[in-house]
Amino acid sequence: QVHLVESGGGLVQPGGSLRLSCAAYGSIFTINTMGWYRQAPGAERELVAAVTSRGSTNYADSVKGRFTISRDNAGNTVTVYLQMNVLKPEDTAVYYCKATTYSYVNYWGQGTQVTVSS
């Protein structure tokens, strides 16, 4: 079992920055990919960015050049960060952390709200 704890959401003005964190606990040795997804009201959940255990990254076209995902494997936790710069109102959504194991089992965090508004 893997347990995910997210933090870092909030309200920011357009053009501002936020950093989201997601710490994984439990059977972290089973985790391959960790990523961030988001879901805006009335929309489907979509991939924002993901990083594999080997450090390969993948970004949605809408965030390329503005968002950076990184991963820190230390001790008994794995933490993934999403640095979000030049935020736009259309980035407003609930952001979810996801961990996928080598056996393709998915775990989700509870979600954190990001609101970009003046």
Relevant terms:
globular; about 120 residues; mainly beta; single chain; 11 strands
What does this structure look like?
This protein has 118 residues and is an all-beta fold. It is 0% helix and 58% strand. The chain is built from no helices and eleven strands. Strands 2, 4, 5, 6, 9, 10 and 11 form a seven-stranded mixed β-sheet that branches. A four-stranded antiparallel β-sheet has the order 1-3-8-7, with no helix packed on it. A hairpin with a 2-residue loop joins strand 7 and strand 8. The mean pLDDT is 96.
Short recap of the structure:
The protein is mainly beta and 118 residues long. It contains no helices and 11 strands.
Strand residue content: over 45%
Helix-strand makeup class:
mainly beta
The low-confidence runs, each spanning 5 or more residues with pLDDT under 50, are: none
Main sheet properties? 7 strands, mixed
| Average pLDDT score | 96
Distance between the termini: 40 Å
The total of helices stands at: 0
Shape estimate: globular
List SSEs in N-to-C order: EEEEEEEEEEE
Q: How many strand segments? A: 11
Portion in helices:
under 10%
C-alpha Rg (nearest Å): 14 Å
Oligomer: single chain
List the helices and strands and how they pair.
Blueprint: E1 2-7, E2 10-12, E3 18-26, E4 31-39, E5 46-51, E6 57-59, E7 67-74, E8 77-84, E9 93-101, E10 106-108, E11 112-116
Parallel strand pairs: 2-11
Antiparallel strand pairs: 1-3, 3-8, 4-5, 4-9, 5-6, 7-8, 9-10, 9-11
